[in-house]
């Protein structure tokens, strides 16, 4: 210890000596012209020489004299300046900020430190405020789509695999979602709580060197969201407001059998006795459609009544009555500025959205206050409080979902708009007679129901950030940060007494008693389900940083620290029977234990108590260190190490943590003398390698049990979750990244090209085991995956005259395949057809497999397949037992190549920008008719009309002939044959933004600093698609979203 | 300035002072435990879903025996609608029934065995003080009972019928005795298998109490009942008689079928049969429309149906006519579509009657049968009081009643295997699409093969031989 002290004192003395000896140096200070703040890390260079230095944190520099007489100063975000360097004394240099938005890119935030991009070795994506703000949305994540390479938002069928991914999926069963970091700490709350207007910028951390600082949770990449802080200078008020509209979705995008076809088929099925089971026996009260009821009742004008029904299409009524135009309003105001030692930022936001289902709306209020207090030259304190309240409510309306038993000609209202009943649980004659009038009205009228249920979710979210930053001698600084978050979620589901849900429940539990009377075990009144959950997290970090330059050649930047995180989620759910909303009373007692014989069906059940209390705790402890060394502004080496430990359950102490590391190097070629004649202002090569991790809380080394209630005995019971697994390890993702960044001196073209390899090892998945042990599979480290791809970004300034034209092109490719998997390939192909995860060595995780299609049999329209290489109609064998290698592997579900091209044109005060996106390499299965479904007599897929009906039809259609005898295997073979698989490749015009801006410099009379007006439109649809069957892969047989149109304004005072 | 520094320092200290191990040992989910206490072990055994099977769950007792037995038949259309070839093969006793698919008949009992082994392993770690408690004895006795029950059920379908003279030369089933997944698996001999079942039940009967309110939990009478059932399967009739008698001394009440509604969809829904007759509740795997023996598609065997006299209530209580063609079984003691496969007083009474008839206790056999029939016959109608004193006649009568009483209980398969060993010559026939299939007495297909999922991991494990195509 003493030795160290002496060493430090020597250093101290030495540095003083040095300072006094700097007579042959020119000294100066670089500040910003805008607010007089010091500009650190600016490069200071004698013109025409290689003598170079950079400014310290306070903007000062000192550079040895040379023969040259002018000094060139370049700094991130500022215009390059040249000054006369021979003047005596301190040279004061005021830098004017760069207007060009591209330059903001050059400092990236990892959540631990801000790194000048020039010195970074890792792979960072950066989305500036301007890019975020050209899109109109309530949610910040929506604004990241199609603007940065490597970040994929899956749409259409692929959306159900992974909603969004950074550089592909590198885990099998752990969470593949990127880590989201808000203001330096992982954010586990609802992303919808964040007001996009409060966001300054977003950094995407893609490779090991960039993300490894986040350690065990960075395997899927990291999205770092930085909020706005107080700006320096005079107070500025910013007001923005917009409103957007979106029409009702297009229900006719969902294929449906025509009313006429459906009715003709129902008559045929009735003739075949298909409804006999529903008319008597076990299914005597099952609902029948109006046509079948007419066929049963046989009124005199039956045929006429049936013909009349053929004119209706349920989609007309559903669209008219259950959907509405979406109107979203977004307003925000913020004030920021600084006074002496304090800088501040206050903001308020209000969003009001009506959903596209009738009765659905959403409101959000956000408030934020952030301030920084500079106590003195060494201590700075900061505090920020963000509060948001989000209220989401809807009625009983699930829109056009087939679950409600809509038959093609169903009507929701008559010609005068009066609500009509729909029979989907019971037959009308049954309802009319059941309980001889003593039961509750058992009819269901969809339109009346909307307001009879109220489903609300209210989320209140409070985030408090505090921090202290202490400047220490010798380039050290110390930071303490603490974040508190509290998210309260109050979910309530009210079923009014008159709602169908309550009436039906009450009737089903009705108990006949003597004298043709009934007992009603379900208490009178409504029903109320409440789920309350509270998420509280505490996160703290202590960090020591070191930044120092020596003799203008060596520069070291290092951080090290310790982090702690504790997150507790409490959840309570309860159900109240007999709720009277106007009085606030509930039933005092409910008999949960008696098993009642149900009135309408067989079987005995008890009244569901539905109450539960749960508590989840996530604890993390981490140590981290990161160091970067730059030599002569040309060569940078970086390294990082981190150890994470978590409160994993049922594992040994040494399995609770994992150490992770990364290393990287960068070479700034444009600073090399031998390349100075090349036309590059930036030319950088970089390479990194490292290991990130992924946590899965599903795995355990010991046998663990989960407490719950038993099913039949009312005893407390425990379920064993897994067999013991002594060899459990953490998942690791090894990634390699190399890239080149470049910019021409005239700034006409700039960009970067990157290539990466991402290998997941020891991935956790369900692995098979001998079922004699009690489990057919166990959760273990059984798989490896390999992924690789390219991320390219190109920015160009095409025109720079009165008409300005900039283009931004992003291109990404991402391929993954499983390289090891201990599970043997199933002998049945069925598990691989569903679209879930069924890992196969050599293939990506999500695949489209299909049966080889042999066309239709010209004799009877049967679909033809192949079994053991020969044409076959043994659908049972084909469907259930075709070996996997006899199936066609069409390709992955997720696109392999994707990106976007954004063009920005500006002329005078007008700016027009539009974004074109593209996705290639994915596949999807189109839908078609299944006769098993059709034979229920409630309609089906519209392909029914295209079915094979007579010899020769096989030349015009691939839809098999109708069969009245259900043959599930025949249907399933056809539905999974390759004739129905299509490429999901698509190019679409995503959006367009036209804005008009004025500022005081242009129009002196303007009462504001600046004002802008914009119109924005999105979801224009496809420009091109690979399939020739007119299906938009974004909306495969689901209601298609319409174009969204927005108008808005921004005012700055 | 100094104050701030002190606050900061205090913050750092406070963070560091948090005990690291406590912090990392905190449970991520309050409901999780690493089972350690007696309470945990009792809760594991009270998991009725895995230990007994529950309605709406997957059941526990293999359906393979009932699927292969002669209580029912399928219509051609029903048979053809079964899409999984495995189940069609089961129905016709095909030689090659195995696919790589999971075989719940194997997996479900072995999962319950894993549960019991976790408990039995865990009990050894308790202190001597904890071990000397009533609760400990109850948990240990229960675990041994459940495990023996699962072994018994597995042996009825995956091991050949017990024959004293050859039992030491035949293969039984793997007898898992720990929860360790590193344990080497091999088949025990048939003798070892039954010896283990009997030994575990002997121990269990000494530990269990006669408390029998929760039928999902075992009791002393359940242990006696299962012992008598096991001895019957082993054709050790003297022992079977004694155990059945011990059981009935503790519990012997019967339900009167006159109190049931013959028009009910499920005759025993809401009835007193669980309180009166059930000693231990267990549920057969199913119902699944793929499984042939499903009450919605299985039709009662016509000969069986015809064997009930018109005044025999079991005819209308067990079967619903014409649903839609053939008679549907509706007599599960659970009062639902799940088949009941537990231990009941009527079964034990029939065991005692049979064993009595076989061991020169004809009067006892007669009394037992008459005791049963009075509860099964229409009130006011004369039931055929059995009065012969001939042992063989009595035995035949008892066996006929056993045939009629214990239908769709998962017991018939074992009975056929046993009775054919003494030459009673029972054949089962099925006709599908005009072709008749027959399972002849003592056919080797009375023993199902070990699932491929198991032999795949244990290539050396001997497979049960199968005959036919």
TrEMBL record, chain A:
Q: Name one GO cellular component term.
A: cell outer membrane
Q: Which residues form the signal peptide?
A: 1-21
Instruction: Provide the protein's localization.
Output: Cell outer membrane
UniProt-listed InterPro entries: Beta-barrel_TonB_sf, CarboxyPept-like_regulatory, Plug_dom, Plug_dom_sf, TonB-dep_OMP_SusC/RagA, TonB-dep_OMP_SusC/RagA_CS, TonB-dep_rcpt-like
Q: Which Pfam families does the entry mention?
A: CarbopepD_reg_2, Plug
| Record domain TonB-dependent receptor plug: where | 119-222
Topology term for the membrane: Multi-pass membrane protein
Could you tell me the keywords of this UniProt record?
Answer: Cell outer membrane, Membrane, Signal, Transmembrane, Transmembrane beta strand, Transport
Q: Which NCBIfam families match?
A: OMP_RagA_SusC, SusC_RagA_signa
Q: Which family is this sequence assigned to?
A: Belongs to the TonB-dependent receptor family.
Name the record gives this protein: SusC/RagA family TonB-linked outer membrane protein
What organism is recorded for this protein?
A: Pedobacter hiemivivus
Q: What's the source species' lineage?
A: Bacteria, Pseudomonadati, Bacteroidota, Sphingobacteriia, Sphingobacteriales
């Amino acid at each position: 210890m003493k030795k160290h002290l002496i060493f430090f004192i020597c250093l101290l003395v030495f540095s003083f000596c040095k300072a006094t000896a700097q007579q042959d140096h020119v000294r100066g200070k670089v500040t910003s012209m805008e607010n007089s703040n010091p500009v650190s890390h600016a490069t200071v260079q004698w013109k025409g020489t290689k003598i170079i230095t950079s400014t310290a944190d306070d903007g000062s520099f000192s550079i040895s004299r040379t023969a040259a007489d002018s000094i060139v100063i370049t700094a991130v975000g500022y215009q390059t300046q040249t000054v006369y360097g021979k003047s005596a004394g301190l040279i004061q240099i005021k830098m004017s900020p760069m207007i060009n938005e591209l330059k903001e890119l050059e400092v990236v935030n990892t959540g631990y430190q801000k790194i000048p991009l020039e010195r970074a070795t890792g792979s960072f994506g950066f989305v500036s405020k301007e890019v975020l703000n050209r899109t109109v949305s309530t949610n910040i994540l929506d604004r990241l789509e199609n603007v940065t390479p490597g970040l994929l938002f899956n749409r259409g069928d692929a959306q159900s695999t992974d909603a969004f991914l950074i550089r592909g999926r590198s885990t099998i069963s752990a969470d593949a979602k990127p880590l989201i970091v808000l203001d330096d700490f992982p954010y586990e709350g609802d992303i919808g709580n964040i007001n996009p207007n409060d966001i300054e910028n977003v950094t995407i951390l893609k490779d090991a060197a960039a993300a490894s600082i986040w350690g065990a949770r960075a395997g899927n990449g990291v999205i770092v969201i930085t909020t706005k802080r107080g700006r320096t200078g005079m107070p500025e008020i910013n007001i923005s407001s917009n409103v957007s509209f979106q029409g009702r979705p297009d229900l006719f995008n969902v294929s449906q059998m025509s009313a006429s076809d459906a009715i003709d088929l129902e008559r045929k099925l009735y003739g075949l006795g298909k409804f006999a089971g529903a008319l008597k026996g076990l299914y005597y009260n099952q609902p029948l459609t109006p046509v079948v009821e007419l066929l049963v009742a046989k009124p005199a004008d039956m045929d006429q009544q049936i013909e009349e029904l053929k004119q209706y299409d349920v989609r007309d009524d559903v669209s008219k009555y259950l959907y509405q135009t979406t109107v979203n309003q977004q307003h925000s105001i913020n004030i920021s500025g600084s006074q002496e030692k304090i800088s501040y930022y206050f903001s308020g936001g209000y969003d009001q959205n009506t959903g596209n289902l009738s009765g659905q709306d959403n409101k959000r209020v956000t408030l934020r206050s952030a301030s920084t207090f500079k106590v003195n030259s060494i201590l700075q304190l900061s505090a920020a409080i963000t509060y948001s309240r989000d209220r989401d409510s809807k009625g009983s309306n699930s829109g056009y979902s087939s679950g409600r038993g809509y038959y093609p000609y169903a009507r929701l209202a008559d010609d005068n708009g009066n609500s009509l009943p729909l029979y989907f649980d019971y037959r009308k004659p049954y309802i009319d007679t059941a309980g001889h009038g003593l039961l509750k009205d058992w009819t269901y009228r969809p339109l009346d129901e909307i307001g009879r249920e109220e489903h609300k979710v209210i989320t209140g979210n409070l985030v408090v950030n505090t921090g202290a930053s202490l400047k220490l001698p010798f380039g050290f600084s110390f930071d303490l940060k603490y974040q508190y978050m509290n998210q309260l979620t109050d979910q309530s589901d009210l079923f009014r007494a008159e709602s169908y849900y309550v009436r039906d429940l009450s009737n089903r539990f009705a108990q006949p008693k003597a004298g043709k009377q009934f007992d009603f075990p379900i208490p009178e009144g409504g029903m109320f389900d409440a789920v309350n959950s509270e998420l509280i997290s505490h996160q703290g970090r202590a960090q020591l940083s070191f930044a120092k330059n020596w003799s203008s050649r060596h520069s070291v930047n290092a951080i090290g620290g310790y982090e702690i995180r504790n997150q507790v989620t409490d959840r309570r759910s309860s159900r109240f029977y007999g709720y009277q909303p106007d009085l606030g009373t509930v039933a005092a007692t409910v008999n949960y234990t008696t098993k009642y014989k149900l009135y309408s069906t067989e079987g005995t059940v008890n009244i569901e108590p539905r109450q539960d209390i749960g508590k989840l705790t996530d604890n993390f402890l981490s140590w981290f260190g990161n160091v970067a060394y730059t030599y002569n502004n040309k060569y940078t080496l970086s390294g990082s190490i981190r150890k994470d430990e978590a409160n994993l359950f049922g594992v040994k102490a040494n399995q609770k943590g994992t150490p992770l590391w990364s290393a990287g190097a960068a070479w700034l070629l444009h600073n090399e003398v031998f390349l100075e004649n090349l036309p590059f202002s930036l030319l950088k090569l970089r390479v990194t390698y490292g290991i990130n991790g992924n946590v899965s809380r599903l795995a355990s080394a010991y046998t663990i049990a989960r407490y719950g209630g038993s099913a039949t005995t009312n005893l407390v019971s425990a379920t064993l979750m897994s067999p013991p697994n002594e060899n459990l390890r953490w998942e690791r993702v090894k990634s390699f990244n190399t890239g080149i960044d470049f910019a021409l001196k005239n700034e006409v073209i700039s960009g970067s090209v990157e290539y990466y390899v991402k290998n997941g090892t020891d991935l956790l998945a369900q692995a098979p085991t001998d079922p004699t042990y009690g489990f057919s599979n166990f959760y273990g480290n059984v798989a490896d995956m390999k992924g690789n791809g390219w991320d390219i970004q190109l920015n160009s300034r095409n025109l720079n005259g009165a008409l300005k034209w900039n283009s931004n092109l992003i291109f990404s490719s991402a391929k993954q395949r499983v390289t090891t998997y201990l599970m043997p390939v199933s002998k049945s192909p069925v598990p691989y057809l569903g679209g879930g995860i069924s890992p196969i060595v050599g293939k990506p995780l999500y695949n489209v497999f299909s049966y080889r299609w042999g066309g239709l049999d010209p004799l009877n329209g049967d679909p033809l397949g192949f079994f053991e290489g020969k044409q076959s109609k043994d659908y049972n064998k084909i469907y259930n037992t075709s070996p996997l290698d006899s199936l066609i592997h069409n390709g992955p579900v997720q696109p392999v190549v994707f990106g976007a091209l954004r063009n920005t044109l500006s002329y005078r005060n007008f700016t027009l920008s539009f974004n074109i996106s593209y996705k290639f390499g994915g596949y999807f299965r189109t839908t078609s008719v299944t006769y098993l479904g059709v034979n229920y007599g409630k309609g089906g897929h519209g392909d029914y009309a295209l079915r094979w009906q007579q010899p020769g039809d096989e030349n015009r259609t691939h839809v098999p002939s109708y069969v009245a005898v259900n043959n599930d295997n025949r249907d399933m073979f056809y539905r999974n044959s390759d004739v129905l698989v299509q490429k999901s490749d698509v190019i679409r015009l995503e959006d367009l933004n036209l804005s008009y801006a004025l500022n005081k410099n242009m129009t002196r009379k303007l009462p504001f600093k600046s004002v802008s007006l914009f119109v924005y439109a999105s979801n224009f649809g496809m420009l091109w698609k690979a399939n020739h069957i007119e299906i938009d892969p974004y909306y495969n047989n689901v209601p298609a979203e319409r174009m969204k149109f927005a108008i808005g304004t921004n005012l700055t005072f | 300035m100094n104050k701030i520094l002190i606050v900061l320092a205090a913050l750092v200290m406070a963070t560091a002072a948090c005990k690291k191990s406590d912090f990392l040992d905190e449970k991520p989910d309050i409901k999780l435990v690493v089972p350690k206490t007696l309470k945990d072990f009792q809760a594991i055994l009270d998991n009725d879903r895995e230990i007994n099977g529950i309605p709406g769950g997957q059941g526990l007792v293999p359906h393979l025996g009932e699927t292969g037995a002669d209580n029912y038949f399928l219509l051609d259309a029903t048979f053809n609608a079964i899409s999984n070839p495995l189940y069609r093969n089961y129905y016709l006793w095909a030689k090659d029934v195995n696919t790589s698919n999971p075989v719940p008949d194997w997996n479900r009992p072995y999962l319950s065995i894993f549960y019991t082994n976790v408990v039995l392993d865990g009990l050894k770690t308790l202190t001597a003080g904890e071990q000397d408690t009533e609760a400990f004895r109850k948990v240990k006795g229960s675990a041994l009972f459940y495990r023996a029950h699962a072994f018994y059920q597995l042996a009825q379908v995956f091991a050949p019928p017990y024959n004293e003279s050859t039992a030491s030369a035949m293969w039984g089933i793997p007898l898992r005795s720990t929860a360790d997944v590193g344990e080497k698996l091999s088949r025990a001999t048939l003798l070892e298998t039954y010896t283990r079942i009997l030994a575990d039940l002997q121990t269990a009967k000494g530990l269990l109490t006669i408390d029998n309110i929760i039928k999902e939990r075992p009791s002393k009478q359940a242990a006696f009942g299962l012992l008598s059932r096991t001895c019957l399967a082993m054709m050790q009739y003297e022992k079977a008689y004694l155990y059945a008698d011990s059981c009935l001394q503790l519990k012997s009440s019967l339900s009167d079928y006159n109190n049931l509604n013959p028009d009910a969809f499920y005759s025993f829904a809401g009835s007193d049969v669980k309180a009166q007759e059930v000693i231990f509740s267990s549920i057969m795997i199913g119902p699944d429309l793929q499984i042939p023996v499903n009450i919605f598609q299985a039709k009662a065997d016509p000969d069986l149906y015809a064997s009930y006299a018109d005044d025999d209530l079991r005819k209308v209580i067990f079967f619903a006519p014409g649903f839609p063609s053939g008679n549907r079984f509706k007599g599960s003691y659970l009062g639902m579509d799940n088949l009941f496969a537990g231990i009941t007083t009527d079964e034990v009474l029939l065991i005692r009657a049979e064993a009595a008839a076989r061991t020169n206790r004809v009067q006892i056999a007669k009394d037992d049968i008459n005791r049963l029939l009075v509860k099964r016959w229409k009130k006011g109608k004369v039931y055929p009081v059995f009065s012969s004193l001939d042992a063989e006649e009595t035995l035949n009568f008892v066996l006929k009643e056993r045939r009629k009483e214990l239908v769709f209980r998962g017991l018939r398969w074992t009975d056929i295997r046993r009775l054919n060993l003494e030459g009673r010559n029972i054949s089962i026939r099925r006709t599908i699409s005009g072709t008749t299939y027959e399972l002849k007495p003592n056919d080797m297909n009375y023993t199902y093969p070990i699932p491929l999922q198991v032999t795949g991991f244990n290539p050396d494990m001997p497979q049960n031989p199968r005959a036919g195509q």
